[in-house]
Specification:
Blueprint: H1 3-16, H2 28-41, H3 54-65, E1 80-82, E2 89-100, E3 106-116, E4 122-124, H4 126-137, E5 140-141, H5 143-158, E6 162-171, H6 172-175, E7 186-193, H7 194-197, H8 199-210
Parallel strand pairs: 2-5
Antiparallel strand pairs: 1-4, 2-3, 3-6, 6-7
Helix pairs in contact: 2-3, 4-5
Length: 212
């Protein structure tokens, strides 16, 4: 693909990209210019052979990594089925990749998402739970906020009797810089409704999450 063809494709993607209510949208030329300036700032030559396409590549990567900024992630939970199911629904070990907003480096791990449907027994597709994790993760984030956002989206959209979200992640800002402790894992949880008020329900969910 030529540079011109890539630029045409990028423009087409921009035109079709969903927007937030504020109209926020990815600015490809500005992102490329910023990456070029960053390369200069760290002492590199952005015009040398190996770096000539780097601003475009990084901008394209950021477009994908921050795709959750340009849509409402909770919209994916709008699809609901009347299954008259009143017991725990749990999806474990959802791969999760996000970007720490403090250093713009990755943190990654797994998310476990469970809920007990409301009185009507309505459920959403299992893939929708994974998708809402993915979209909230595709923003500059902190793990604590990410965990709460996922839980609150499920509460607001599905009106369940209880929600539990647990995220286990390794942060590269701890592993590759600063304290340099690779392998350290951070665990965060958010509980809503029945999982907050009932130790039995919470214990059942945590037991299922911990099983290998």
């Amino acid at each position: 693909m030529t540079i011109s063809e890539q630029q045409d494709m990028d423009r087409a993607v921009d035109e079709l990209a969903p927007r937030t209510p504020s109209g926020r949208q990815f600015d490809q030329p500005r992102a490329e210019a910023a990456i070029r300036e960053l390369l200069i700032a760290v002492g590199e030559d952005p015009d040398r052979e190996g770096l000539q396409r780097t601003p475009t590549r990084v901008a394209n990567a950021y477009r994908e990594m921050f795709a959750g900024l340009y849509t409402d992630p909770s919209e994916v939970l709008a699809t609901i089925f009347d299954e008259n199911h009143n017991e725990l629904v749990l999806v474990k070990d959802i791969p999760m990749y996000s970007t720490c907003e403090h250093h713009l480096v990755s943190f990654h791990g797994v998310a476990h998402v469970g809920y007990i449907p409301g009185e009507g027994g309505q459920v959403t597709g299992l893939s929708k739970l994974a998708r809402v994790v993915d979209l909230y993760a595709k923003r500059p984030q902190v793990q604590e906020r990410l965990t709460s956002q996922i839980a609150d989206a499920i509460v607001n959209r599905l009106e369940p009797r209880g929600v539990i979200v647990v995220i286990e992640a390794e942060h590269l800002c701890m592993a590759m810089r600063g304290i340099r402790k690779p392998g350290a894992t951070t665990t965060t949880s958010a509980v809503r409704g029945l999982f907050k008020t009932s130790a039995v329900s919470r214990g059942e969910a945590l037991d299922l999450i911990s099983r290998t």
